[in-house]
Amino acid sequence: MNSAMIMAQAISHDIAMFFCALFAGGSVYISLVEDPATAKAGPRMAGAYLVTAHPRPAIIQTIFATVAAFAGLLAGLASGSAWWLAGGAILAFAVLLQMLKVIPLVRAVADAGPQADAGWLTRRLEKLARLHAVLSLAGLAVMFVFVMKS
User: The dihedral of CA 61, 63, 69, 74: what is its sign?
Assistant: First the structure.
């Protein structure tokens, strides 16, 4: 393996691990702190909170996962490791889940605002909590693989 390929492998490993850690940490924080707090506050308060606080973090989480996915895939290609490729693929799935499910759901709740039907808001918040749990597990699993295979 030539020196350029070794350098690409090392840099992509570091970038993938750093951004995966940011993604996993943010996802776990949302799952363990924010989702229970919004559920405890009730649907109206949670709806008001999501309007002001949630759209930007969802986009930032998507960016973290995207960078980690691309770097993980590049690391897998550079090193020939199926584990790094699998980690990058799982993070790419997390990006799709974030873009196709989480962000539209957050925008729907934000557009409805705190005056929306309490039952509708409760169902959407429960769905959002389940999606955040899936993202947390994906981020932690990939971070574990990246750490073990680096």
Answer: negative
